[in-house]
Amino acid sequence: MPNKKTTVAFSGTEEQEEALRKVIEEMKEEKGALMPILQKAQDIYGYLPKKVMKIISDETQIPMEKIYGVATFYSQFTLNPKGKYRISVCLGTACYVKGSGDIYNKLMEKLGIVGGECTPDGKFSLDACRCVGACGLAPVMMINDEVYGRLTVDDIDDILAKYE
Fold first, then answer.
1. pTM value?
2. Exposed, middle or buried, 16 (CB in 10 Å: 0-12/13-18/19+)?
3. Contact between residue 59 and residue 65 where contact means Cβ atoms under 8 Å apart
4. Which helix (H) or strand (E) holds 126?
5. Do 19 and 44 meet the contact criterion of CB atoms below 8 Å apart?
6. pLDDT by 10-residue block (mean), the chain, 164 residues
7. CA-CA distance, 86 to 119, in Å (whole number)?
8. What is the pLDDT at residue 2?
9. Which end of the chain is more exposed for a tag (fewer CB within 10 A), N or C?
């Protein structure tokens, strides 16, 4: 299992920064603007990297600590980029008792990342979820919108090969 934090280099564009600054300018004087600004920023970049939060802080005069606190408190926000292929393994009760924990561990080992991270090439990200509503197919994982059910650890290599 990986023990070192895997990071993907921030690669924002001038167009994205321009769009972010426009959003901030339009909203910063409104009461309670931080949440909508963070939502728009995540829409623009796909996640909330430190550099983006710093721009928001500088432009709104809201301390970084407060921005970070909001971004980490609400589950809708992510501080890590998502991969081209977003893998989500159900760790809800039905899936877990049928082995989804082992599948999740195998994916971490195979991809060299832990939950919430993205592979350095930006291809895969891995997350756990609590239920995808397919308990009859337990254990289940999703890659983007594709559902894979009745999984075993031995299925992982063949499934990942489809996305290589």
1. 0.76
2. middle
3. no
4. strand 124-129
5. yes
6. 58 94 95 96 94 97 97 90 95 97 98 94 94 94 96 98 93
7. 11
8. 47
9. C
